[in-house]
């Protein structure tokens, strides 16, 4: 092999190792939340319950979710992911659901770097709003599953 061939081979090998390393670091994380009226701030009087199951790809920052709920005081009027806030505190809307908020709700979005950091640090929650509880009737903090 001549020097040029050796240099090209080394560059190709290095590029391959870099690509392999980047893919090895990609991870799909799973998050869940149990929706209930006691988690709202302040707590609400309702029989409503629900769940959120979500995944987050750490490289593409793609966020996918499915939320279900039942037994609210009336039809849902809105649903949102909020943050940054830990349990017991309120925050603004980080990602609002567009379209129907009838259970089940599902969707995909790409998070910003800031949104991803808040999600990963446990500072995102989901809630469902009704006419009787316009600030939210059921809420759950997204918890990363190990």
Protein topology:
Layout: H1 3-25, E1 28-35, E2 49-57, E3 62-70, E4 76-82, E5 93-96, E6 105-110, H2 113-120, E7 125-130, E8 138-141, E9 143-144
Antiparallel strand pairs: 1-2, 1-9, 2-3, 3-6, 4-5, 4-7, 7-8
Tell me what you see in this structure.
With 146 residues, the protein is of the alpha+beta class. The protein has one domain (26-144). 21% of the residues lie in helices and 38% in strands. It is built from 2 helices and 9 strands. The protein has helices spanning 3-25, 113-120, and strands at 28-35, 49-57, 62-70, 76-82, 93-96, 105-110, 125-130, 138-141, 143-144. The strands form 2 sheets. A 5-stranded antiparallel beta sheet has the order 6-3-2-1-9, with no helix packed on it. It has a 4-stranded antiparallel beta sheet with strand order 5-4-7-8, with no helix packed on it. Strand 2 and strand 3 form a beta hairpin. 31% of the residues are buried.
Observed structural traits:
single chain; 146 residues; alpha+beta; 5-stranded antiparallel beta sheet; 4-stranded antiparallel beta sheet; 2 helices; 38% strand
């Amino acid at each position: 092999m001549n020097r040029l061939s050796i240099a090209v081979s080394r560059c190709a090998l290095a590029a391959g190792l870099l690509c392999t390393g980047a893919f090895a670091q990609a991870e799909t994380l799973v998050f869940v939340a149990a929706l209930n009226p006691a988690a709202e701030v302040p707590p609400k009087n309702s029989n409503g319950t629900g769940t959120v199951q979500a995944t987050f790809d750490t490289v593409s920052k793609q966020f996918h979710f499915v939320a279900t709920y039942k037994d609210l005081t009336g039809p849902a009027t809105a649903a949102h992911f909020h943050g940054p806030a830990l349990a017991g505190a309120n925050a603004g809307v980080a990602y609002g659901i567009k379209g129907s908020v009838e259970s089940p709700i599902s969707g995909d979005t790409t998070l910003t770097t800031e949104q991803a950091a808040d999600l990963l640090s446990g500072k995102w929650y989901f809630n469902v709003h009704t006419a009787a509880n316009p600030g939210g009737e059921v809420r759950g903090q997204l918890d990363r599953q190990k």
